[in-house]
Design a protein that fits this description.
The protein is built from three helices and nine strands; from the N terminus they run αβααββββββββ. With 199 residues, it is of the alpha+beta class. The longest helix has 49 residues. The radius of gyration is 20 Å and the shape is elongated. The termini are far apart.
């Protein structure tokens, strides 16, 4: 009888403690993701300093955590430009090399749960809507279905602290959550700071 009472007590404790552990794990994932974005921001600024004030680019709208299987003549991912500043191997030197710093831990867990590939994992690069209705993309933009937008010089950008660079994925894969971190997402701005924001 005492054993049964102890098991019931343990089960009740687990019911109350499980949400606490889940929230703690989510906060840890969010903090790790924010830290990764800060390091990416530093690497971007090193690139800018080393390249006459020019931002890296042009890049596509999704920033994936892996390098392509081979080096391509016209790089389209942020990682292709800043890999040396993150002490990573040159893209193409290792097949399907993964840059962990470009992986949000929450996304990685969701992909593992759903048996999905790395191709579904990325940060978003959308740019910042300007007063005139245009979109400012400091790294330029390249896509097969639209004209290439050239990259910008940092000195040409009026308010780097207000320019969106990268953010957590907004629509998690089949999840009912708004973002990978619930109601908020980590956003890296061009001046290098990261903040939590509603999508």
């Amino acid at each position: 009888m005492e054993l049964l009472a102890a098991m019931v007590l343990l089960a009740v404790l687990l019911v109350f403690l499980l949400p606490v552990f889940t929230r703690s794990a989510r906060k840890a994932d969010m903090a790790t993701c924010g830290s990764n974005l800060r390091q990416i921001g530093l690497a971007v600024h090193y690139y800018i300093q080393e390249n006459g004030g020019w931002c890296p680019g042009p890049i596509g709208s999704s920033v994936k955590p892996y390098t392509k299987g081979k080096w391509i003549r016209s790089p389209s991912g942020l990682l292709d430009f800043i890999y040396p500043n993150l002490s990573l191997p040159m893209p193409g030197m290792e097949d399907s090399a993964v840059a962990e710093i470009f992986r949000c831990p929450a996304t990685r867990k969701l992909l593992a749960e759903r048996n999905l590939s790395l191709n579904s994992e990325y940060f978003e690069y959308k740019g910042t809507r300007q007063e005139d209705g245009s979109t400012l993309r400091p790294f330029g933009y390249t896509a097969s279905d639209s004209p290439t937008v050239p990259r910008r010089k940092l000195s040409e950008i009026r308010n780097p602290a207000g320019v969106f660079v990268l953010g957590d994925r907004c629509k998690p894969l089949g999840s009912d959550a708004t973002t990978m971190h619930g109601p908020v997402r980590n956003i890296l701005y061009l001046d290098g700071h990261v903040e939590l924001s509603e999508p």
